[in-house]
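Design review, sub-item: ligand-bound model
Attendees: FS, YL, KQ
YL presented the inputs for the FE2/S2 (inorganic) cluster complex:
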Amino acid sequence: MSMHEITIKVNGKPRRLAVKSNELLLNVLRDKLFMTGAKYGCGIAECGACTILKDGKSVMSCLVPAVAADGWDITTPEGLADGGTLSHVQQAFIDHAAIQCGFCTPGMVVASTALLNENPDPDEEYVRDYLRGNYCRCTGYVAMVSAVLDAAQRMKAE
Ligand code: FES
Ligand code: FES
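KQ shared the predicted structure:
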């Protein structure tokens, strides 16, 4: 299998890596950079557990060949907090108890962050529609939607 050098920025830090041509970005993040926040759920872009940000927009990393990510500016779930301060979305998920088993949570929080990057003033319908690619088997979504709407208000108030 041929190897390729790629340079990616992950949570603000430039990383230079050798990757195989068939390696997926999710596996490189988890296994080579030990960023295990993004989860392997389905592997076929159905569940959203592997969601990361590329330039602030949501991407399912289980579908991206690592070689195709050369030059990307990536944020993983580990990069959402500012040092010890949680992002508004992270804090709102906690405050609204929008977490049960937690498996979907990193992807859900990343996707919600992308949502608010794109639309800082969403309504409930927008949030529900945007998050339709992120599956949660536990919460029923109500608390998550409330958390995203609340995070939008907190960002506006800042
Ligand atoms: S693991 Fe990527 S969408 Fe499910
Ligand atoms: S909290 Fe369990 S899958 Fe969402």
